Each structure stands twice: as structure tokens, then as C-alpha cells.
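agent> Task received from the user: take the single chain below, predict its 3D structure, and emit C-alpha cells. No templates, no multimer pairing.
agent> Plan: (1) validate residues, (2) run structure prediction, (3) serialize to C-alpha cells, (4) report one or two observations.
agent> Step 1 OK, no nonstandard residues flagged.
tool_call: predict_structure(input=
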Amino acid sequence: MAEAQAATANSGAAIARPSVLSLSIKEKAALYASYMPFLINGGIFVPTNKPYKIADEIYLILSLMEDSAKYPIAGKVAWVTPAGANNNKAQGVGVHFPADESGKRVKMRIEEILGAAVNSSRGTHTL
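)
tool_result: status=success, residues=127
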């Protein structure tokens, strides 16, 4: 097994690393439009022109409004809005938060900020 790994490493094949994205949300309305509460662990829509596929790993650095903390999230792509999507939806990906402590922490913080708005029927970047 180690020989196969060494052969792969020597052949110049790159080991896939999660892509790194950064998202800074400055307003509650933007947070509402980006948050994906329908995902089991919660998630967030990240506008990007980079091509992604469902289940791609993403490392996201998330900043929320006045919160001085940055939330590092190792998530997976759960949603893709391609360029030219219907209703002029923004191109980007939905990043599913992990089931670990970092995912629970950011989900709880977002829902704390949004309060009752989480259950609103207003349109979002995803649904």
C-alpha cells in the first residue's frame, strides 16, 4: 500500500485538498438569504464563480456581522447554483456544516442572530 502511495506521489498527482472560501456577512437580511436551515446540521450559501460539485470539501472562514469571532468550517458542498440559474439566482454553493462542535457552534450562533426569522417564508438564495 505504501508503495502505491509513493508511486502516486512521485508521478506528480496532486492530493486533493479542500478549497478555501471566505464569506463575510454584514447584515441580518443577507444572513437570512444565505442560511440553509433545512440541512441537518445547517449550512450557508457562498457566492462564488468557482466550479464545484456536490460533496466537494470546502474550508470556509465565516464572519458574521458585528461578531468579532471568525468561524472556521470544514464542510461539504450540498447545493450548487450554476451561472445563469432561473430567477437570476446568484451563482454559488451551499456549504453543509459538519456535525462536529464547530458546525454546531456556528449553526447555534446564526439561529441566535436570526431568531424567529429562521422560520420566515421569504425567498433566499437557495429556495
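agent> Step 4: summary for the user.
The helical segments are 2-10, 28-34, 101-114.
agent> Done.
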